[in-house]
Design brief:
Blueprint: E1 3-9, E2 12-18, H1 22-43, H2 52-96
Antiparallel strand pairs: 1-2
Helix pairs in contact: 1-2
Length: 97
Amino acid sequence: MEETITIELFGQSFSFKTQIDAETAKEIADLLVREVDSVTQEHTGKTSGMNKLAILTIAAMNIANEYIELKRNHMILLENISSKSASLLKTIDVSLH
């Protein structure tokens, strides 16, 4: 089912359609709004005339960085679980024989 989500960035409303559920789409949109607000606050007064595209790009890069770090940490966790599981299975196998 197609959902329409509206977010506000830079004092403007933006609506978009999505195939995912409304709650998830709203969570994603809220993440973007929070990150754009954070970047805007960080750079207020530091860089005069910083345009909206630059702010959106920095926000997107920050979100992408978080995603890559989480993905990397997830892979490390899976590798650790796999390694510990193999070790436990080996220990069980040895103790049974």
